[in-house]
Amino acid sequence: MLLTGARFSEVLGNVKVGYPALEWRDVDFKKKTVLFRNTKNRMEHELPLSKQIPTLLEHRKEISGTTYVFSDRNDNVPSDLRTAYEKIEAASNVRVTAHDLRRTFSTIASRLDISTFKLKKLINQISSDERGERDGGSTAGYIQITTDDLRDAMQRISDYIMSPERREQVEND
After folding, report:
1. Who has the most CB within 10 Å: 67, 72, 84, 102?
2. If we measure between CA atoms, which residue out of 79, 90, 85, 58 comes closest to residue 2?
3. CA distance 152 to 121
């Protein structure tokens, strides 16, 4: 979630509201993309994968089931990540939630001067113009951003997060 800015429900699904968990069939290692289906805004959302993500997903394949990316070997997808968050907090003394990961992704994008239009596309936030409403201007309705247009931004964010200097900084804080 941190490296994509994806919502918890886009990754692990939410049975109550009909959001599917991310499936291996939606990860295209050749095109280096991931497709989130039936998202919060009821649209499909395709993202480019940074250079680091395919390697992480290949390691994930070794421990997951054959259908869902974030499952155990029996394809059971967790309904929450409380245990993982507790482990992070115990190790780092920092309390983390899924939405914190999404906020961190967005904050890093802002620090890297990634345009608001690209950031909204990365995190699957549709503008009011895309809904057919007016938000004081119609600029967003004119801008067409493709998955390939997002590759550089996605890579810059991943490089920032995964850089050895950042890990040292976090470890020293």
Report:
1. 102
2. 85
3. 13
